Amino acid sequence: MAEAVKWYIKAADQGDADAQFFPGESYYYGHGAPKNKAEALIWLQRAAARGHDEAQKLIQKATNS
User: Does domain 2-64 sit in CATH 1.25.40.10?
Assistant: First the structure.
């Protein structure tokens, strides 16, 4: 899974909202990447800025916990 996170980050840097969501989710839950709420929020905010609904929901969850 860690290898997948690397590839998603490469795609995320190109501006793909789904690719930006995946590292955010991975960092938030600690799946394939170390659990890191601050890093998760960076990626989730990028995806949310592009209209990614799931990213917006996870941001709300992260900021309410």
Answer: yes
